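User: Predict the structure for this protein chain, please.
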Amino acid sequence: MEATNAMGGIGFWVVYLVAIFALMYFIAIRPQKKEKKKLQELMASIAVGDTVLTSSGFYGVIIDMTDDTVIVEFGSNKNCRIPMQKQAIVQVEKPET
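Assistant: Here is the predicted structure, written as C-alpha cells:
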C-alpha cells in the first residue's frame, strides 16, 4: 500500500515541475525570443535616410552604414555626425515617399 502512495507523490512532483517549467517558458523565454526576432527584423530594415531613435534618446537621420555601424546626423546642424553601433537604434521611421 505504501509503495503506491509514494509513487503517487513522486508523480505529483513530476507533473508539478513540468508545469512550472512550462509556465516559465511562456512567461520568460517565449516573449524574449519574440522580442529578439523583432529587433533582428528592425536591424535588417535599416537604410540610409531613415529617421532613427537611439537608446540614449536622440533622434537623427542615417547618412551612411556598414555591417555593424551607422553614421547618424543629429539636428539641423549638418556637422553633427556621430558613428554608432546599430544595436544603439531602438526605433526606425521610414521617410515618406
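The longest helix spans residues 2-45.
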